[in-house]
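Bumping with the actual sequence this time:
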Amino acid sequence: MIHATATVPFTPRANPLPALTDRQVEVMVLIAEDFCVKEIASKLNLSPKTVEHHRTTIYSRTGCHSAVALTRWAIARGYVLLPKVL
């Protein structure tokens, strides 16, 4: 018995990760580490308004609507590592 197999041309999928700038990744990691906007601004030498803008852009690009959701998203993609529990 001969089985016919259909060949489907390989088409690479678009990158499923949103394009985040290096600065946005820095802000995202600090949000995930529970720093507030003023603390992030101070650590990165930015204005709080700039941090707010980055946060809005990050939420939009990741589809997250809260810091908790963003933290889970970042952990799932390896941006943030959980500490080992003994």
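The tokens above came from a reply further down the thread. Helices lie at 22-32, 37-44, 48-62, 67-76.
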